[in-house]
Specification:
Length: 182
Amino acid sequence: MFNLPNILTLSRILMIPLLVGSFYIEGHVGNWIGFAIFALAGITDFFDGYLARRLKQSSKLGAFMDPIADKLLIAAALMMMVAVERISGLSVLAAVVILCREFLVSGLREFLAELKVSVPVTKLAKWKTTIQIFALGFLLVGEASPKAIPSIEIGDACLWIAALLTLYTGYDYLRAGLKHMD
């Protein structure tokens, strides 16, 4: 039940309170700690999938927990950055679009799983996730970045690109799912 990939996934969930806690550390050190936790969570995300395939330790528990861990981590990062106004103004809309799509696609996948219909992840959705991760990384560092790197501007731009891709891929998944909702 609890093999190494599942333990890595669980560790990612347990990192979420640490990530949230990093927002309460004053000064730039909090930004860098939050970024480090987020990066470590990303590394565990890579290795849990890699090890599950390599060690042939895929499990139903892992298949269930992995996407939930990802969504919880993204949601916590977005919510905290909106709360402390690292994401502000119209960029809050991009964060809301991303959150809404995550819940919509999760619900759709759950519904379709009951019908024994698989919804594979598209390449564009993988690109969306990658750009979203970069956006969150830059925004987590925020004003703590070296002056030569405009982290907030890069993060905001990537967040908007991710939001646009989110709309497109969310619509794509919804359109595919609607075919099975008679």
